[in-house]
Amino acid sequence: MWTIVGLCAAAGALRFAMHARLVDTEHLYAALSAYLLAGIFLGHFYWALEQIRPGSFAAAGNFSRMSGSIFSFVTLATLGYGDIVPRTDVARGLAVFEELVDSCSWRCCCSLDQPLHAGQETN
Fold first, then answer.
1. pLDDT band at residue 121 under the 50/70/90 scheme
2. 67 part of a folded domain
3. What count of Cα atoms within 13 Å lies in the side-chain half-sphere of residue 37?
4. Is 15 among the domain residues?
5. Cβ atoms within 10 Å of 8's Cβ, excluding its own
6. What is the dihedral of CA 66, 64, 58, 45, to 10 degrees?
7. Residue 106 lies in domain
């Protein structure tokens, strides 16, 4: 249930950030919040996938909710430590999807910054 609440909160924050006429710090914070909530949501999704299909991830020890969140944020940050590895096609596809969404979201956040500097003169 909390996963759905987090997903709805991320969607609301992203909607707030993207529908701004004038971008200020509140909109940038909303975009960052959506990004972090999406990471937590996908971490729980990875954990649920491991519960439904055991062996989807190769990890040292038990694959817990924290392991799912760690893998999600490592994927978002493109670090790739290798201590948790997706083993099935579904898990790999979800990791690729997460990285594609991450790349697009950073481009959107960078484009949010453009109106902040519009009309300012440089010396």
1. very low
2. yes
3. 19
4. no
5. 12
6. -70
7. 2-8+26-117
If you ran DSSP here, which 8-state letter would residue 118 be given? T
Name the domain count of the chain: 1
3-state secondary structure of 70: helix
Identify the pLDDT of residue 123.
Answer: 47
Tens digits of per-residue pLDDT, 21-59? 776 777 778 778 888 888 888 888 899 999 999 999 998
Angle in degrees, CA 87, 90, 93, rounded to 5: 95
Asked if residue 44 belongs to a domain, the reply is: yes
Q: Would you state the structure tokens that stand for residue 13, as one six-digit string?
A: 């924050």
DSSP tag of 84: E
- Residue 115 has which token pair? 């109106």
